[in-house]
């Protein structure tokens, strides 16, 4: 089974590239940084530590002149600038995480597989709202980490950091709060990151804290401040494919790594440890579809009726095959009101005109379309010889690529 798992991991590693950015400090090399390197960090396509000292052996770069978490914003702002200047958009995704977290990169890659890093203008993590910082929509906590697409990183570095009206230039400052506020002002969404049952995937505490049905400090705090998703108690409240656990010390990093990748239970096999499931997953990755516009969640009600939404919100609409017209019959009507006077019904030489303009009068509602156009009958009979029907937008004003078809009101057609 390990052969199957290795092939699966290699395929994902190549298809979804992730640059990991670890926030650390000068006193944590042996207690946290090296244990991370010796367990899960090698699953990243590339990684670097944002530090207050230079250390090529990690590697870590000095991004702040002073030590302490209160200088974390200076470190992360500096390391993001460095990464963008040196690597640009070479990598698909950028995962910032603290040095006491244990990540499962296969699960993160599967989470990101059907998301397009070129178009995505959002970022993912564990979303919270603390009372002392009024950030619209909340922000992602830095411990469990957050993931930026290469499009979001570019916007943050080139539009956000240089503008003091968007990103503050303060120090000291807490990186998750400051980055979260930058993102809001850049219109980069703080996406809810959960599975199909609403269970959180970026866990802001360690596995023992959140798997137990008993109360504890971390779980109580984050249940109170979490924005969205479900938050129960015990094992069943945790997702099947968690991405990260925070507050994991060195000994538990090694314990997690052993349980995740070495230990087995007789008679029990992982759901991906068989060739049929693997083939299905890899086939899905080969034909992955993406949302190519923002705000697809606002147009989900139009997935089955609006061609623009269906074709540009493939992931949200769960529609990788493109627009499929509704199965209900299209309305049958005459374009004009003089069809009965034209004497064209039943005359073969006028069949095309009869089909196009006098279908109802000539009883051609079920006739074969003689034209090559993919859409002959409009979904809404809004045009008429004498009566002008109400003019309205099918989707929001922000996404008017096909102006005439979908945004006649806003575009004044």
Give helix and strand order, one letter per element, not per position. HEHEEHEEHEEEEHHEEHHEHHHHHH
Please describe the biggest sheet, giving its number of strands, its sense, and whether it closes into a barrel: 7 strands, mixed
How many strand elements? 12
| Terminal Cα span | 61 Å
How does the helix and strand content classify structurally? alpha/beta
**Total DSSP helices:** 14
User: What integer value in Å does the Rg equal?
Assistant: 27 Å
Strand numbers in spatial order across the main sheet: 3-2-1-4-9-6-10
Mean pLDDT: 81
- The share of residues in helices is 25-40%
CATH topology of the domain at 2-286: Spore Coat Polysaccharide Biosynthesis Protein SpsA, Chain A
The fraction of residues assigned to DSSP E strands is 5-15%
CATH class placement of the domain at 2-286: Alpha Beta
Shape: elongated
The CATH architecture of the domain at 2-286 can be given as Alpha-Beta Complex
Oligomer: single chain
Poorly predicted sequence stretches spanning 5 or more consecutive residues: 372-413
Give the topology.
Layout: H1 2-15, E1 18-23, H2 29-38, E2 46-51, E3 60-62, H3 72-87, E4 93-98, E5 102-103, H4 105-112, E6 122-125, E7 127-128, E8 139-140, E9 146-149, H5 150-160, H6 175-185, E10 189-192, E11 202-203, H7 207-211, H8 217-225, E12 244-245, H9 250-261, H10 275-286, H11 307-312, H12 339-342, H13 351-357, H14 403-406
Parallel strand pairs: 1-2, 1-4, 2-3, 6-10, 11-12
Antiparallel strand pairs: 4-9, 5-12, 6-9, 7-8
Helix pairs in contact: 1-10, 2-9, 3-6
